[in-house]
Design brief:
By secondary structure, the protein is mostly helical. It is built from 4 helices and no strands. The protein has 2 domains: 37 residues; 55 residues. It is rod-shaped. The C terminus is likely disordered.
């Protein structure tokens, strides 16, 4: 970017400067809008922050997925325990399933009776 700006200040056209650098004019203008006026340190810091943002988003996604899986397992364990306790008390049909895995036949998919 700095070289292109120097060439432009020296009288070259944008097209000539881009050909010299081997980039398209579109790339030049995109870089100019993104990095124009920034010093090299600021550009390096921006790249570092963008890299860190990607890394943190991946970590967050992994944690959300792990949290979801753990909640599903916990819910399954709670259902098993509920069924076991109901069976031990001689009432096997009292345990109510959750998450809609099996529902009362009189209920609609939305959970509303008779629809």
């Amino acid at each position: 970017m700095k070289q292109a700006e120097t060439d432009l200040a020296g009288g070259m056209t944008v097209r000539q400067a881009c050909q010299k650098l081997g980039i398209s004019e579109q790339t030049f203008y995109r870089w100019r809008s993104r990095f124009g006026g920034m010093k090299a340190e600021a550009v390096a810091r921006l790249a570092q922050l963008e890299f860190e943002t990607v890394r943190l988003k991946k970590l967050l996604g992994q944690e959300v997925l792990e949290n979801y899986v753990l909640r599903e397992k916990l819910e399954d364990l709670q259902n098993c325990l509920r069924h076991r306790r109901a069976a031990e008390n001689g009432r096997p049909n009292e345990a109510t399933p959750s998450r809609g895995k099996s529902r009362n036949k009189s209920q609609s998919p939305a959970g509303l009776p008779g629809l």
